[in-house]
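re: ur question from yesterday

yeah so i grabbed the chain u mentioned. its 63 aa long if i counted rite. heres the sequnce exactly as i have it in my notes:
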Amino acid sequence: MKNIIRDLRTERGWSQAALAERLDVSRQTVNAIETGRYDPSLPLAFAIARVFGMSIEAIFPQD
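ran it thru and got these structure tokens back, copy pasting raw so excuse formatting
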């Protein structure tokens, strides 16, 4: 699933580990989501949106 999580994370100066801690997931999960190897569950997608203060649609564009 295409997403802009890496860009949002680096804009804030967060490591994958720091984002993982905020989301209560492993760093490997963050890496897999960023690279499109893993699609987050709906609750995790909502948590990601909440952490970045954005809509799910903005973080996971459908184009």
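noticed a couple things. The domain at 5-53 is CATH 1.10.260.40 (434 Repressor (Amino-terminal Domain)). also Residues 42-52 form the longest helix (11 residues).
anyway ttyl
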